[in-house]
Amino acid sequence: MSRKCSLTGRSRMVVHRVTRRGRARAAGGVGRKVTGKHRRVQKANLQKKRVLTSGTVRTVWLSARALRSVTAGRVPGVQLR
Questions:
Q1: Cβ(75)–Cβ(60) under 8 Å?
Q2: Which of 6, 28, 50, 71 has minimal Cβ neighbours within 10 Å of its Cβ?
Q3: How many CB atoms lie within 10 A of CB 14?
Q4: 13-80 sits in which CATH class?
Q5: 13-72 pLDDT tens trace
Q6: pTM here?
Q7: pLDDT tens, 3-27?
Q8: In this structure, are residues 60 and 51 in contact, taking their beta carbons and an 8 Å threshold?
Q9: Where does the record place the region Disordered (predicted)?
Q10: Which H or E run contains 49?
Q11: Running DSSP on this structure, what letter comes out for residue 72?
Q12: Which candidate, 47, 51, 77, places its Cα nearest to that of 64?
């Protein structure tokens, strides 16, 4: 089972870690300069939950946002167990 939200499809996302040098203008410097950008992986906030869907109980990965929607009853046919 892949780490992917079964309702929204959220999974990992590639982002940059930005390295800077210098002093900020507000602090009396000439400004911050970017010296490097490195790729990194940012993981989604996924939780493993048991849900009841179409009469069967399954264990699925749910993102935090999808979990809030299921708890509030905004997703028809899906209930937490």
A1: no
A2: 28
A3: 8
A4: mainly beta
A5: 999 999 999 999 999 999 999 999 999 999 999 999 999 998 999 999 999 999 999 999
A6: 0.77
A7: 999 999 999 999 999 999 999 999 9
A8: yes
A9: 21-45
A10: strand 46-53
A11: H
A12: 47
